[in-house]
């Protein structure tokens, strides 16, 4: 699953940052009528929601994988034969490693990444950076 969604997750992470920053910059800098401002606010909300549709399920999948180790441990695995115990022990050790979806191996996609995107878009640094990019 990581291999299939890796580039898609990275793409949406950066597209959310770029479009969110540019929309917020345009909303704050451009002198426009109220209807245009409402359209821009709705656009920002949909940008947040779109990335949330990727980040929240990725976080749920990661937590379900980590719950697998606890479920196996709570079962009565130790009452089985030694061969089964070894296999179950291997499964428990393997499932204890933290599993998460990454955007091309660079960015962990989860609830924290979603929050960081919102913070970066809201930050004044985003508007200042876009101001210097468009000014030169």
From TrEMBL:
User: What are the alphabetically sorted keywords of the record?
Assistant: Cell membrane, Membrane, Olfaction, Receptor, Sensory transduction, Transducer, Transmembrane, Transmembrane helix
* PROSITE patterns, A to Z: PROKAR_LIPOPROTEIN
Please give, as recorded in its UniProt entry, the membrane topology of this protein.
Answer: Multi-pass membrane protein
Q: Which parts pass through the membrane?
A: 6-25, 37-56
Q: Write one Gene Ontology MF term.
A: olfactory receptor activity
User: GO terms for biological process?
Assistant: signal transduction
Q: Name one Pfam family in it.
A: 7tm_6
What subcellular compartments does it reside in?
Cell membrane
Cellular compartments per GO CC: plasma membrane
Q: What is this protein called?
A: 7tm Odorant receptor
Species this chain originates from: Popillia japonica (Japanese beetle)
């Amino acid at each position: 699953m990581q291999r299939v969604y890796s580039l898609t997750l990275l793409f949406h992470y950066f597209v959310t940052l770029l479009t969110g920053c540019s929309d917020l910059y345009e909303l704050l800098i451009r002198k426009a009528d109220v209807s245009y401002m409402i359209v821009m606010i709705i656009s920002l909300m949909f940008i947040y929601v779109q990335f949330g549709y990727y980040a929240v399920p990725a976080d749920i999948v990661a937590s379900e994988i980590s719950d697998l180790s606890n479920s196996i441990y709570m079962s009565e695995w130790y009452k089985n034969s030694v061969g089964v115990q070894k296999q179950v022990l291997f499964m428990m050790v393997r499932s204890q490693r933290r599993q998460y979806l990454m955007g091309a191996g660079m960015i962990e996609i989860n609830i924290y990444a979603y929050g960081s995107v919102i913070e970066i878009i809201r930050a004044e640094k985003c508007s200042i950076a876009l101001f210097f990019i468009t000014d030169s």
